[in-house]
Design a protein that fits this description.
With 232 residues, the protein is α/β, with parallel strands linked by helices. It has nine helices and twelve strands. The strands form three sheets. A five-stranded parallel β-sheet has the order 2-1-3-4-5, with helices on both faces. A four-stranded antiparallel β-sheet has the order 6-7-8-9, with helices on one face. Strands 10-12-11 form a three-stranded antiparallel β-sheet. 29% of the residues are buried. The chain is elongated and about 60 Å long. Helix 6 crosses helix 7, helix 6 packs across helix 8 and helix 7 crosses helix 8. It has two domains: 122 residues, Rossmann fold (3-Layer(aba) Sandwich); 103 residues, Winged helix-like DNA-binding domain superfamily/Winged helix DNA-binding domain (Arc Repressor Mutant, subunit A), CATH 1.10.10.10. Helices cover 41% and strands 23% of the residues.
Length: 232
C-alpha cells in the first residue's frame, strides 16, 4: 500500500517508515497536518497514520477535514500519547479507524494496519479471477480477455490494469500509481504512468460503450469508473 505518515516527530516518523517499507509498503512522511492536506491536491494514499498532537493543525483537525471532504474510504490510524478512554472514544466516533498509543511497537502497528485494511478494502483480498464485464482478469496467469478474446499485455500493463480495477471509483494520483505498480524505490517518473495509461486505454478500448470510463484529472491523476456509477 501507499501510506502517508503525518507526525511532527521526525525520528518516530522515520522509524515507522523503515518498518513499513521493510514490509513492502510505500511511504511518504509529512511533518505537520497542513503540509499533508496541501499535498492531497496532487497525491492519494491507501492509508494514513496520523499523530494527534501537532503544532498549527493537529490530527483531530486533519481527520475532521478528511471526513468533511468525503474521504471515508481511506482508513486513518491515530498514533498518540493520549490514552484516556474519553480520548479514544471521541476520536473513534469522529471517524478514526484505529488508535495506537506511544511508544509504537512494530509488530502491533503492522498487525493493526492489516486488520484495518481487511475491514476497509475487502475487495483487495487475493482472488484468482475477476469478472468485470466485458473484461475477465486471471491473476494467477496474469492474463486478460475481453468478451472471450485475449488482450496481449506486458507484465506492467497487467499490473496497472489490475490496480485500477481494484480501485474502481477512486482518484489515484500519478505518484500513488507509480509507487504501487512500479515500487516505492522506482527510478521512473510520472510520465511512465501517463504512457502506460494511454496504452491500456487503447488496448482495452476503455470507453462508455463498454461500460467504463478512465478519466485523467488535471494535476492529480486518474479515476476508473463504471459508466452507470459516473452518471449517478
Amino acid at each position: 500500500m501507499r501510506i502517508a505518515i503525518v507526525d511532527d516527530d521526525p525520528h518516530l516518523a522515520e522509524l515507522v517508515k523503515i518498518w513499513l517499507e521493510a514490509s513492502g509498503h510505500s511511504c511518504v512522511v509529512y511533518g505537520d497536518g497542513r503540509e499533508f492536506i496541501n499535498s492531497l491536491k496532487r497525491e492519494s494514499f491507501d492509508l494514513i497514520i496520523l499523530d494527534w498532537i501537532m503544532p498549527d493543525m493537529d490530527g483531530e483537525q486533519v481527520l475532521n477535514w478528511l471526513r468533511e471532504q468525503g474521504s471515508r474510504s481511506v482508513p486513518v490510524i491515530f498514533v498518540t500519547q493520549k490514552d484516556s478512554e474519553e480520548d479514544v472514544a471521541r476520536i473513534l466516533n469522529e471517524g478514526a479507524d484505529d488508535y495506537i498509543t506511544k511508544p509504537v511497537r512494530e509488530k502491533e502497528l503492522l498487525a493493526r494496519i492489516m486488520a484495518v485494511t481487511r475491514r476497509s478494502h475487502p475487495q483487495q483480498v487475493e482472488v484468482e479471477d475477476l469478472d468485470l464485464s466485458p473484461y475477465h482478469l486471471n491473476t494467477a496467469s496474469h492474463s486478460l480477455s475481453m468478451k472471450g478474446a485475449e488482450i496481449k499485455l506486458t507484465q506492467k500493463e497487467f499490473e496497472l490494469v489490475l490496480f485500477l480495477f481494484r480501485n474502481i471509483g477512486r482518484l489515484l494520483s500519478r505518484g500513488h500509481i507509480l509507487a504501487s505498480v512500479w515500487g516505492h524505490g522506482s527510478e521512473f517518473n510520472t510520465r511512465t504512468v501517463d504512457t502506460h495509461i494511454s496504452r491500456i486505454r487503447k488496448k482495452l478500448d476503455l470507453n462508455p460503450a463498454h461500460g467504463w470510463k478512465l478519466t485523467a484529472i488535471y494535476h492529480q491523476g486518474y479515476r476508473l469508473e463504471r459508466v452507470e456509477d459516473a452518471a449517478a
